[in-house]
Design brief:
This protein has helices at about 1-25, 30-45, 45-50, 60-90, 95-100, 105-135, 145-165, 175-190, 200-205, 210-225, 230-250. By secondary structure, the chain is mainly α.
Length: about 260
């Protein structure tokens, strides 16, 4: 019985995801933001990393570059691009029309987010392979933690994008409303700057940011310097942020244009 119920849902999600992927491909600025920026930005922070002493942190340049690459993929391939996508579909009345059909609200949001999430996952795999080959990141010591961090980070970014879209009036302003989380995450979540080199008090505060635990799982899974207790804490914190974000989407998300 469950298979009979899930099959139509899967077909509807695939159809909506294909349509969303087609629309994404037609938007050149979205393609550049989603695909090219996460590839270029990690190399832009390398000169700054060369000035940081990583010996006492147990990290190496390859691990830090890999973590930065995956973090930028979270922010630009998934979060930023989805904020624009949700707002654009809302302002074009696409979401309103979809609600009159067979799709439920969770299916509409999931189908819209699915292409960006899948692209983010594919990008994380490509970036991981590139960092291993080009910057000597080495093999992951606990790959299951890195995979878990990537998956949780992708889901959380999609939920955060839906929340941000709720407070965004136009597609043009999407880049502005998404900017605070992007900047805070780059500085405080261990993406552009490893948390291990930050002052202890500042680092302890930064650990509470939404993307910090997912980034910690990615980095710690690759370097192997994450204890079982720390890993469980990071997973629990990420799940807590994800649950809060999902529940916040239900009352806050707007399905009709903001006037």
């Amino acid at each position: 019985m469950s298979a009979l119920v899930l099959a139509p849902v899967g077909r509807r999600l695939r159809a909506l995801a294909r349509a969303e992927l087609t629309l994404l491909g037609r938007n050149r600025s979205a393609v550049i933001t989603a695909l090219l920026m996460p590839l270029a930005l990690p190399f832009s922070v390398r000169p700054a990393l060369d000035q940081v002493d990583l010996e006492d942190t147990g990290l190496n340049l390859g691990t830090v570059m890999l973590t930065a690459a995956i973090g930028f993929s979270f922010l630009f391939c998934v979060y930023t691009s989805l904020v624009s996508a949700f707002v654009a579909r809302r302002e074009e009345l696409v979401l309103k029309r979809l609600r009159t059909g067979e799709l439920g609200d969770p299916e509409i949001l999931a189908g819209t987010a699915l292409p960006a999430v899948c692209l983010g996952l594919a990008q994380a795999l490509v970036l991981s392979a590139g960092c291993v080959l080009l910057v000597d990141a080495g093999a992951p010591r606990a790959p299951y933690l890195t995979v878990l961090g990537v998956l949780l980070g992708l889901v959380l970014c999609a939920a955060l994008a839906a929340i941000t879209a709720s407070f965004t009036r136009t597609v043009e302003s999407a880049q502005v409303t998404a900017l605070p989380l992007v900047l805070v995450s780059m500085v405080g979540s261990g993406i552009a700057i490893p948390v291990e080199v930050l002052p202890d008090r500042f680092a302890s505060v930064c650990e509470l940011l939404p993307l910090s635990p997912a980034i910690r799982l990615v980095s710690g899974g690759w370097s192997g310097h994450l204890s079982a207790y720390e890993a469980l804490g990071a997973v629990a914190t990420t799940l807590a942020w994800t649950v809060l974000a999902v529940f916040a989407v239900r009352p806050w998300f707007r399905w009709e244009p903001r006037r």
